[in-house]
Structure formats: C-alpha cells, structure tokens
Write a structure and sequence with these properties.
The protein is mainly beta. The strands form six sheets. It has a five-stranded mixed β-sheet, with no helix packed on it. Strands 4-11-10-7 form a four-stranded mixed β-sheet, with helices on one face. It is built from two helices and 20 strands. Strand 13 (171-179) and strand 14 form a beta hairpin. It comes from Hermanssonia centrifuga. Residues 1-23 form the signal peptide. InterPro entries: Cupredoxin (IPR008972), Ser-rich/MCO-related (IPR052953). Keywords: Signal.
Amino acid sequence: MLFSIVPTLAIILSSAVVPSVLAADHQVIVGGPGVLQFNPSTVTASPGDTVSFTFKQVNHTATQSTFANPCQMADNGFDSGFIPVSADNTNGPFPVAQFTVEDMNPVWVYCRQANHCQQGMVFAINPGDKFPAFQAAAMGVPVGSTLSGTSSSIASAPPNTNTATATPSLVTVTATVTISGQQQVTTYGSYPGSAAPTAAVSSDHKVVVGGPNKLFFDPANITAQVGDTVTFQFMQKNHTSTQSTFAEPCISLTQTSTSGQVGFDSGFMPVADNATTFPTFTIEINDVLSEVD
C-alpha cells in the first residue's frame, strides 16, 4: 500500500512503475463543520491513480478496514492517524493524506474517531455494488431495513443453528435510538428473545457559569445519564466551559489527548455587567465517564 501524509500542493514521487495512461487524482473531503462523512463516499479508480483525502473540521482519520469488519483497522492496512483541524479554520490550508491505488480490488475505509464509523462515516474505492451493505454493517443496520426517526431499529444476532439444548448465551445487540431528536448507535448485551429496551426520558441539567464577583460553576458537579443534556448559562464577565481531564484540569482535552479525542469547548462568552439576557451552551451526555470542566 502506498499512503502518504503530504503538505498542501506537494508533488508525490513514487518508485512504482508509471502507467502509460495519465493517472487521475480523486479528491475526497473528510469531515467538515458538523459533517461526519467522506465526500464523495465512493470513487472508482484505476491502478496508479491517487486518492487525496483532504481533512476538515474537526479531528478525523482515513483508516483501512475490511468488508467483514468495517469499523476495525485491517491488518497491515493504511492509516492516516488523527488529523485535527481547528473549528475556526474555515479557509484552509487543510492537511492532505494521499493513497495510491495498486489494483482494482475494493479498498474499504473508515474514520476511527469515537463512534464516527458507527454513524456511517465510511468510504470505499472500487466497491462495486457493495457499498450500501458495507455502510449498513458499519452502522449495525440490517441490509434492506430503514431507520425510523422516532423508534429504535434493532439488529438481531443470527439464529443459532446448533440443535443441541443449551443455556442461552449473551449476545451483543446494536440499536439505533433517538435521543433529544438525534439518532445515536448504541450496543448492549441481551439474551435471545429478550424484549427491546424502552427509551428513557432525558433530563436537562442547568449550570450557571460565573456572575457578579463569582468565579465558579453553580452547581460544581452533577450526576447525569446517557442522553441527558447539560446547559451552561453564562453570566458576567467572560468565561468558557471547556472539557479537560482529571490529570490536567486546566488544559483542554483536545490539547492533552493522545488518541485524537476532541473535547467540547464553548469558547469565550463575554457578558456585560448590565446584561439582562445570558448566552447558553449545551452538551449531550454520551457516556457515564467523568467530564471535568
């Protein structure tokens, strides 16, 4: 596999045999403001062609996987590594990773940031008619089914072909659920024949940030469930709500993460002393691990 991280406008020279036909370069945009996708999601390329992945906001990878395991790095497959791009970088230049196509066999790609793959952030070179099945497998959705915006779609485990009587074993079930109006993919253990879980009611937790002569969050801590939201209301003067870690409480998670994780950050919220309306910033709880602000 020929895969390189290249500076913008750089020219790649390879020792591989140059084909007699002029090779093409296929441009693919990775991510962007509020976007979890490769654009386009597929390309048809010939041996010797290149695929240039241009990385936009916020922090993504282009990582080779397999059709059988869409969200798992393939053995000896290429990987761009995490490439962070600041949210305020709207005009570039943007980093580029370039892959050289060696043959006409399909190449399956995903983003290994958090649960981006499980939300359908996958890509393929020369997939034929298999890309819909590849993306559906990444999202844990049975091929041919449709997702409802108001109900859960459960991908059941395959039937047990063993005719011997045995104690039911725990299987992993993938479900697409709707939380606060948005679809999320979750996995959980379940015994065959168990009823699907019922949706929990989410709560919003209000936290006041600052105020006249106040340099603290009120309350200073909360207990929240997955799907709950936390709304930070900013008072006087000028504060932020920025995710950090227990080990580095005064440095943003985005700066200290060794796995490419991007923490939330409200940015500075200036509020005048005589203000009567106050800005807010809301986050949604994705897990029950501690988040330090």
